[in-house]
């Protein structure tokens, strides 16, 4: 499966689809509660990360929350 992750082309071997939660785990996101996920331009509800599937040619962005001051 080939996706665009944060603007970069990524090939994920031997997989035809993966959940948003699975991608966060595979990418070793250490604080997933601090990340919003955008799939094909739409924000994914955090409660659906396990059920929302990413398939070939999808565009995924991880949006990290940062504090400033």
The CATH architecture classification is Roll
CATH topology: Ubiquitin-like (UB roll)
- Give the strand order, joined by hyphens, for the main sheet: 2-1-7-4-5
CATH H-level superfamily title = Beta-grasp domain
Shape: globular
What percent of residues are in strands? 35-45%
Unreliable runs, pLDDT <50, ≥5 residues?
none
Summing up helix and strand content along with how strands pair, one would put the structural category as mainly beta
Mean pLDDT: 94
Please identify the top-level CATH class: Alpha Beta
Q: How many whole angstroms does the radius of gyration measure? A: 12 Å
Report on the biggest sheet. 5 strands, mixed
Protein name: Sulfur carrier protein
Organism: Candidatus Electrothrix marina
Structure description:
This protein is mainly β. It has one helix at 20-26; strands at residues 2-5, 8-11, 17-19, 35-39, 42-43, 53-55, 59-64. The protein has one domain (2-64): Beta-grasp domain (Ubiquitin-like (UB roll), Roll), CATH 3.10.20.30. It is 10% helix and 39% strand. A hairpin with a 2-residue loop joins strand 4 (35-39) and strand 5 (42-43). It holds the Pfam family ThiS. It comes from Candidatus Electrothrix marina. This is Sulfur carrier protein.
Keywords:
single chain; 69 residues; mainly beta; Ubiquitin-like (UB roll); five-stranded mixed sheet; two-stranded antiparallel ribbon; 1 helix; 10% helix; 39% strand
Task: Compile the SSE list and pairings.
Elements: E1 2-5, E2 8-11, E3 17-19, H1 20-26, E4 35-39, E5 42-43, E6 53-55, E7 59-64
Parallel strand pairs: 1-7
Antiparallel strand pairs: 1-2, 3-6, 4-5, 4-7
């Amino acid at each position: 499966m080939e996706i665009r992750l944060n603007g970069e082309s990524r090939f994920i071997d031997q997989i035809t689809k993966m959940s948003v939660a699975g991608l966060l785990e595979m990418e070793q996101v250490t604080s997933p509660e601090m990340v919003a996920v955008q799939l094909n331009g739409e924000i994914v509800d955090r409660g659906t990360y396990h059920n929302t599937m990413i398939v070939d040619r999808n565009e995924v962005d991880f949006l990290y929350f940062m504090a400033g001051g």
